[in-house]
Design goal:
- By secondary structure, the protein is mainly alpha-helical.
- Helix 2 crosses helix 3 and helix 3 packs antiparallel against helix 4.
- The radius of gyration is 14 Å and the shape is elongated.
- It starts with 7 loop residues before the first helix and ends with a helix.
């Protein structure tokens, strides 16, 4: 779907508290999260503008976004599982 917002909070609502916590307390997570959101925004802007870029470039941007999302998801899951185990 074009121009779909893939913000972490929308794609992983079950990790909302973890997202907020890690963005506040974990500088590495915060940096990756910012990169992810900028990349997602850039992709959505290209989609709205009718993709004024070639298919390979758009594909590469989406692959970068997916890879970042995978890394962030693993960090979210690890934090969540640790928090559940200690409570």
């Amino acid at each position: 779907m074009l121009n779909e917002n893939h913000a972490l909070i929308f794609d992983f609502p079950e990790f909302k508290q973890d997202i907020v916590y890690l963005n506040y307390k974990d500088e590495a997570f915060q940096t990756l999260s910012k990169q992810y959101h900028v990349l997602d925004y850039d992709i959505r802007q290209l989609e709205v503008a009718g993709s004024p870029t070639d298919d390979e470039h758009m594909h590469n941007l989406k692959v970068q976004r997916a890879n970042l999302k995978d890394v962030l998801f693993q960090q979210l899951k690890a934090h969540h599982d640790k928090a559940v185990a200690t409570s």
